Amino acid sequence: KKIKFQSGDLLAFRPNKNEAARQYSIAKVNGDILLSIKKHDKGLCSTILSGLNPSDTIEAHIDYNSNFHLPKKAKNVVLIANGTGIAPFLGMIKDNHKQQHIHLFWGGRTHQSLELYADLLNEAKNENKLSQFHVAYSQEQEAKVYVQDLILQQSDFISKHLQEEGIIMICGSIAMQNSVL
């Protein structure tokens, strides 16, 4: 059914009544929920969700996450994500109708990882909804490069951004978050 939600809210999915609900950060793209989920070999939810067909339905609910929405009044926003943590940011960028300056830092394993999101990111760049996109690939060269390495390389920009009271939002692994902080 039609439920109001925003990018950054959480989709809570319970694989069965005996399991705790798993929460996934979502994007709102053209009124639809966009999820990005990595399938894990022993992952209960990722296995169920990856086996769905386009006409299949699931039962889930939205948990509002008001502390993780794109701030309306911020002029400059830095979004930092790795892997599937990009999902809510894709929706936030898509909804950037005020053309705030959004800088996305994202880390994935390979160029192929980015292909899933390339159309949305290219569209956002063309519509001036995304100011800059910085990407790190951890598995394509001898020396691994992670999103936190990009942040370190851009430390002057990040410092200035914070001095000017810019917003930074992070979504992804706890290890990445800790390293960025």
Textual characterization of the structure:
The structure is a single chain. The protein is built from seven helices and nine strands; from the N terminus they run ββββαββαβααβααβα. The strands form three sheets. Strands 8-7-6-9 form a four-stranded parallel β-sheet, sandwiched between helices. It has helices at residues 44-50, 87-94, 111-115, 118-126, 147-153, 155-163, 174-180, and strands at residues 10-13, 22-25, 27-29, 32-34, 60-63, 76-82, 101-108, 132-137, 167-171. α2 links the parallel β6 and β7. By secondary structure, the chain is α/β, with parallel strands linked by helices. α5 runs parallel beside α7 (174-180). The protein is globular and about 50 Å long. Helices cover 29% and strands 24% of the residues. 29% of the residues are buried.
Q: Segments where pLDDT lies below 50 for 5+ residues?
A: none
* H and E string: EEEEHEEHEHHEHHEH
Report the major sheet: 4 strands, parallel
**What is the overall silhouette?**
globular
- How far apart are the first and last residues' alpha carbons, in Å? 39 Å
**Helix count?**
7
Over the alpha carbons, how many angstroms does the gyration radius reach?
17 Å
Q: Give the class from helix and strand content and strand pairing.
A: alpha/beta
For the biggest β-sheet, the strand order reads 8-7-6-9
Query: Residue share in helices?
Result: 25-40%
